[in-house]
Design a protein that fits this description.
Structural class: alpha+beta
Largest sheet: 3 strands, antiparallel
Strand content: 5-15%
Shape: globular
Helix content: 10-25%
Number of strands: 5
Number of helices: 2
Strand order of the largest sheet: 3-4-5
Oligomer: single chain
Length: about 100
């Protein structure tokens, strides 16, 4: 069982490191003036407001531990989020 857990953790680590963070839009949302995040999608088989999915995080609104705002294109990954990155001079700050 320990071997399976370690293998799974290594696989998840490899999946996360192989994803291009430069393609994730700046700001608190899964989109910006340049377009929509390539890792964001909607599962049309799920109910509205529970149908968002992030393949970068492999997380979905319908999961029990999810924040549940992916359907509304609110980021969960915190990548290129200037407020969390500490860049005070960026026009995409989440908070005033």
């Amino acid at each position: 069982m320990l071997t399976i857990g370690i293998t799974l953790m290594m696989t998840i680590g490899v999946l996360m490191t192989n994803k291009d963070e430069s393609k994730i839009p700046k700001g608190p949302y899964c989109y910006d003036g340049k377009g929509v995040c390539p890792y964001w999608s909607i599962n049309s088989k799920k109910p509205k407001q529970l149908n968002g999915h992030c393949s970068y995080l492999n997380q979905s609104d319908w999961e029990e531990d999810s924040v549940g705002l992916l359907w509304d294109q609110c980021k969960s990954c915190e990548v290129n989020d200037s407020y969390l990155d500490g860049d005070d001079d960026d026009e995409y700050d989440c908070l005033p």
